[in-house]
Design goal:
This protein is of the alpha+beta class. It has one domain: Sulfite Oxidase, Chain A, domain 2 (Alpha-Beta Complex). Helices cover 19% and strands 23% of the residues. It is built from ten helices and twelve strands. Strands 3, 4, 7, 8, 9, 11 and 12 form a seven-stranded mixed beta sheet that branches. Strands 2-1-10-5-6 form a five-stranded mixed beta sheet. A hairpin with a 2-residue loop joins strand 7 and strand 8. Helix 1 packs across helix 2. 39% of the residues are buried. The protein binds ligand MTE.
């Protein structure tokens, strides 16, 4: 069996971490549930499709309040040196050291699946004519830290509409480049490469979902996912896939990298939710990367449902059991 190397647990107080014996028991219980054909269907989300999204999409006017937070920004130095980008290693400082080898120009993205105008398109053409927008978003990592980052980019929905998705396009799947020549981490099977992520179509079309090409007014550094990455601010950071080379419109829920590795720990939706703990740690609180030379992390603060974007996004999940569809 392949060795699983999930995220390294965050440095949280021992009292917040589930006792190991309890955790092991829980994992045994989950394994037993999954092995049972009847109970397995109830325990996970792989077996069934979630309820369809609401018919009325969220309007840009309704989403606008979420475009900028007035909270203090995380320092540029920290945003660009404390990263998760496993293609360049699993340490937080690996990407900033190793990612310089990623060639980001020319860059093409292959778009296919359930759409009328599939094709391979250069980055410049992909975003041509769309005015870059600035968004100041909180990014909450599943590990328990968070940042506030000024991004530049274009709404993903505006890009996707250019390919004319068909009525069968219920999901959108994204793939990162996986080139061992340029990405040393890909030589190790920490993840089943390429890194893959997915969104339900309404989430992809939501005005808050950004296809980012820059941060702090500069082109995106390689370690942050150059030349283009997703930013989905109400979901855990791992949904914000970096260095995208393929986009596919799909009828069925696509496989995603972390869910494939550990389905009991990383669900498809992965909406930030303080009421649904990760099996190995609490998600109730988080620590901002503080940007103080003497101290990387600030004091713990409560994590908010949907990372504080409930007003803009909660309607998309009305009637859904968010413990089941975590
Ligand atoms: N995308 C790829 N291709 N590979 C990764 O390892 N890590 C994810 C996400 N996107 C990751 C990725 C995780 S866990 C987080 S928290 C964010 O990127 C981190 O983004 P940042 O380094 O720009 O803060």
């Amino acid at each position: 069996m392949r060795t699983l190397r999930p995220f390294r647990p965050p440095a949280v107080a021992a009292s917040e971490i589930t006792d190991e014996a309890v955790y092991r028991d829980r994992r045994r219980l989950l394994a037993a549930l999954a092995a049972s054909p009847v109970l397995g269907a109830l325990s996970g989300c792989a077996e069934a499709e979630p309820p369809p999204p609401p018919r009325t999409p969220v309007s840009t006017a309704d989403a606008r309040a979420g475009f900028r937070t007035g909270e203090p920004l995380t320092r540029y130095e920290d945003v660009t040196s404390y990263n998760n980008f496993y293609e360049f290693g699993t340490g937080k400082d690996d990407p900033s050291k190793a990612a310089k080898t990623l060639r980001t120009s020319p860059w093409t993205v292959a778009v296919d699946g359930e759409c009328a105008r599939p094709g391979r398109i250069g980055l410049e053409d992909l975003v041509r004519g769309l005015a870059p927008q600035e968004r100041i978003y909180r990014l909450r990592c599943v590990e328990g830290w968070s940042m506030v980052i000024p991004w530049q980019g274009v709404p993903l929905g505006e890009v996707l509409r250019r390919f004319e998705p068909t009525a069968k396009a219920k999901y959108v799947a994204f793939t990162t480049l996986a080139d061992p020549q340029q990405m040393p981490g890909v030589r190790y099977r920490s993840i089943d490469w390429p890194y893959r992520e997915g969104l339900r179509i309404d989430e992809a079309m939501h005005p808050l979902t950004l296809l980012a090409t820059g941060l702090y007014g500069k082109p995106l550094p390689q370690q942050n996912g150059a030349p283009l990455r997703l930013v989905v601010p109400w979901k855990y950071g791992f949904k914000s896939i970096k260095s995208i080379v393929a986009i596919r419109f799909a009828e069925k829920m696509p496989a995603t990298a972390w869910n494939a590795l550990q389905p009991s720990e990383y669900g498809f939706f992965s909406n930030v939710n303080p009421d649904v703990d990760h099996p190995r740690w609490s998600q109730k609180t988080e620590r901002r990367i503080a940007g103080q030379a003497s101290k990387l992390f600030a004091e713990r603060i409560p994590t908010r449902p949907f990372n504080g974007y409930a007003e803009q996004v909660a309607s998309m999940y009305a009637g859904m059991d968010l413990r089941k569809w975590f």
